[in-house]
Amino acid sequence: MGYLKKKKICAASAGLMLCMALQPLPAFAAENGGTVLQSAGVTAVLETSLSTEEYIQLAAQAQGASYGYTNIGISNISDELLNVRAVPALDGKLVGKMPRGAACEVLDTADGWAHIQSGEVEGYVSLDYLLTGPDAKLMANDLVRTVAVANTDGLNVRENPDTNSPVVTQIRQGEELDYLETIDGWVKVAVDSDEVYVSAEYVDVVTKLDTAITMTELLYGAGVSDVRVDLTEYAKQFLGNPYVWGGTSLTNGADCSGFVLSIFAKYGISMPRVADAQATVGTSISADQLLPGDLIFYGKGGYINHVAIYIGGGQVIHASTERTGIKISNYNYRTPVKYVRVLQD
Q: From the CB of residue 47, how many other CB atoms can be counted at a distance below 10 Å?
């Protein structure tokens, strides 16, 4: 059935292109500089002089043109994570969650549910909270990010585009950095709130959309106290919310230390306002002692300028940048400089 459905979609797309090819378009083309632009976010420009066969070929190429997705869906839930279930039922086992704006391939739809694949997660989500069709494509255009992906381990991140410039931190292979621009063999990126540089030779610049989070990424190890589980679960409710420098609002925007301050305030723990001061609270621990709810600090030049909450499984949640907002990362996505335990249980 899926194969037949795909054939029908391809035939419909080709038919639409064929109809466009057979219709006279001089007036519209004249208003647009001799070209016809598709209005649904597809970047291809169709010249009116193309043959019927070329239009059909373009129709075929358009399949999957939405950032690698053939039938794209976008999570449109407002204030939490969209549940992905093993079966299309409200009591189905959770296999993952989609933050607002995360993308997926819609494999099929039936009875109010969409069968989707998003990153490593395959399952079912409610169509009530999923944009599909032209709406999803338009939303994708607003959400797509350009990132620089490290293609080597221990990638040096420097203050300036120069091999003699001080190394701010090191990035592990596969980590993504927010891309800003390319300058003479160097890529300017954002690492949390810092604008820094990496050699263009050691990163791949790609466009991408966020995808679902596996349940493994959201769970903890055994032996974790109830308050630690509750605190980290509470923090995850705000995934995808905005980063705002100087902010402390978990919904309207917070920076890294404002996020930590507000999360811990719910549990009656008063924290200083800035990351450097927060690093002086509690007890210093080693990496092998980390438990969910502990804090990890990052910095440069001997100064701590970023903080994240460890959530278990080698991962942290933190307010990273204006582009990414509150997100989950590997705890050593950049070089940690201090580990601190505030929750004494």
A: 10
Can you say how many angstroms the Cα of residue 330 is from the centroid of all Cα atoms in its chain? 13
Phi, psi angle pair for 105, to nearest 5°: -90, 125
Residues 120, 143, 103: CA angle, nearest 5 degrees: 25
Residues 6+ apart with CB under 8 A from 67: 103, 140, 144, 207, 208, 209
Q: CA-based angle 228:75:217, to the nearest 5?
A: 30
List pLDDT tens digits, range 260-280.
999 999 999 999 999 999 999
Question: What mean pLDDT comes out for the span 8-12?
Answer: 41
d(CA 98, CA 136): 15
CA distance 123 to 95: 7
98-107 burial string, b = 16+ CB within 10 Å, else e?
bbbbbbbbbe
What is the C-alpha to C-alpha distance for residues 270 and 264, in angstroms, rounded to an integer?
7
CA distance 176 to 206: 10
120 secondary structure, DSSP code: T
β-bridge pairing 167-171 and 45-47: unpaired
Residue 12 has pLDDT above 60, yes or no: no
DSSP secondary structure letter of residue 127: G
Residue 143 host element (H or E):
helix 133-143
Q: Return the residue matching tokens 């169509």.
A: 127
The whole model's pTM is what?
Answer: 0.61
Question: Is the pLDDT assigned to residue 113 strictly greater than 80?
Answer: yes
